[in-house]
Protein: RsmF rRNA methyltransferase first C-terminal domain-containing protein
Amino acid sequence: MNLPDKYIAKMKGLLKDEYEEYIESFNEERLHGLRVNNLKIDTEEFGKIAPFHLDKIHWISNGYYYAKEDLPSKHPYYYAGLYYLQEPSAMTPAELFGIEPYDKVLDLCAAPGGKSTELGAKLKGTGVLVSNDISASRAKSLLKNIELAGISNSIVLSETPEKLSNYFPEYFDKILIDAPCSGEGMFRKDNSMIKNWSEESVEYYSDIQNGILPFAAEMLKPGGYMMYSTCTFSPSENEKTISKFLDEHEDFELANLPDFDGFDRGKTEWSSSDKYDLSKTVRLWPHKIKGEGHFVALLYKKESETTKIFKKYKMDTREKEYSVFVDFEKEYLNVKFDRSRLQVINEKLYYMPKEIPVLKGLRLLRTGLYMGDIKKNRFEPSQAFACSLTREQFKNIVNLDIMYDNVIRYLKGETLQVEGAKGWNLVCTQNYPLGFAKKANNLLKNKYYPGWRYM
Ligand SMILES: C[S@@+](CC[C@H](N)C(=O)[O-])C[C@H]1O[C@@H](n2cnc3c(N)ncnc32)[C@H](O)[C@@H]1O
Structure:
């Protein structure tokens, strides 16, 4: 491991007696983590059906370590959205945040969606999840992961925090800032992070973090919580960022995070003042826990009267614009969608979250669930819609046995010759939805989204 001399000197200074243990942790194999998507399947049930070598991650209720040779990204259950592959320590912020159904949640630096997909699962289809990333290309993978996970109540954006703050004043109950950082905690997992490291890069990221936090604060309701996390060790990006923020925001205070075996705490002596008890924050070290490096802080915005109002989004779609969907619903669905949330935009039908602000002028990748396309005489359901459904919600099912190659053939976009009712079918494996197909004559026409095909 070729660590920069200046980095070694800095870590020796921070860790003192513990430095040798830290360095030895680089000789250990990196760990592989998988987080079960509880929107689709219960954690214990997944443990029973998954053909992987699983070991529970002790501080993550739905997290498992898997063996490298399991290749879970190649398994059809991955395509059914049953889990997300994520480094174990990176699961910590969403696990500790205390998201509750009906919360309005913002994930400000969200791509590619490791934490957003869990925040969405914890909302259980209620409230609203706004997932944003400043990088338009990274926001595209974020959208895919949100759709694959079956999260239906989300807005996906690619904006600056400053611009967002004009649209969502004191709107959110909870905001996660998983900040861009110098990535020191990922050195063992990703060698390229080492090459990009310099003392200047630490200062560069610290400036960005200090720039993001005040805008996040403006979007949080009084009485709401803001979580700040990084995957780096440097105090300038962790304790010092938090103490600087608290110096400038007297309406905020640090909230305590729980303790688990192997957790270390943040250090007040590593911040720029002794005014705040940084031991309420959490530090994860690769020599103390089976995971990489992470820092997590929880901030509480004190209660006060909110004076901020946001301009409400008004639905402006009349039933006749989506009448083809109503026919589709009668013929194929066992659920009825709330008419007041259906919105047609450019011949696409969306199921919108409730009580959202006007979004005009923002770089939007998705508002709500993209259900499908309104064609002249018919409705064409989308891949995202298939991912949001359970087997019970659709009338015609083609259930492919996981043991046979028809599952992979379907995911590759091939036409199958299998039994099925005429018209639209929800294709599942072991009753977990994968996508749509349309039965005509004796063939099952494959409607799996071409951009997501199995490679
Ligand atoms: C640590 S990564 C986020 C990882 C993500 N939360 C996950 O769990 O998959 C930080 C992200 O912040 C984004 N970013 C950088 N500067 C930003 C800014 N000023 N506003 C919003 N996002 C920003 C980057 O594009 C990057 O995707």
Notes: The longest strand covers residues 220-230. The radius of gyration is 23 Å. The first helix runs from residue 5 to 15. The chain has a mean pLDDT of 96.
